[in-house]
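Review this:
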Amino acid sequence: MDGILRCSRYAFGPNRLHYCGPDANQEILAYINEGESDPGLTVLLRGFATMFPYLRLIAQANGIRDPFDDRVVEAYWIGNDLLENVGRQRLWRHLAEGLEMKKKLDPRSFELVEDKIAQGAAPHHSFHVLDIWKRTGHLPIAQTLESMDECRISWGEVVAVDGPKITVETEPLVLLDGKLSLNPPAKRTIVRALESLSDIEQLAAGQIVTIHWGVPCEVITPGQAAQLRKYTLRHLNLANQTI
């Protein structure tokens, strides 16, 4: 799968709920089902006002021309070494000026975000979900525990497949003693579409899948799951400093 199709799988979940991106969920789904991309899909994904600037930031910091390069897409949604090449000052400018978070957040909230950048925050999807409390899509409201758990990229091992239903063991986000943490694995059933012939529709027990807003996105390796867990825990720890 090329980078832009991979990215579309992650973007589809919140887009179908009209949380972010253009009103184009049926078009994006059609590209996913066909397994082919073209300039039209690029235009649609560039319309995601929070996601695309992050991809562009990671690409530029690493000298990569295409923001939808597969390495860049993986860095943002799952995590890889490209994230460590985005300096603190560049990340600050991205948030303060590119996404205009200095205007969207009250001064104290933005100061807390600045502190987290100084402590090693990375331009990973989990950082924006867990450490910027105000949602920045079409609903500029405060995050809730439920919305953070759905919006972060979670992962789980497939334990059963029953037609359109898959059961995974995943670690849910919980608030315990006033702090965010991942609970021990619990079973969760997800309903998937069966139109596509891609790997996500041919799942088998033992595989690991990523999940975004209730949508299974892709099969990942144990190594990729470890990267996703690492960056998720990093940004959970930073979030807990200001709860």
Summary: The chain has two domains: 3-131, 150-240. The radius of gyration is 17 Å. The chain has a mean pLDDT of 90. Residues 222-240 form the longest helix (19 residues).
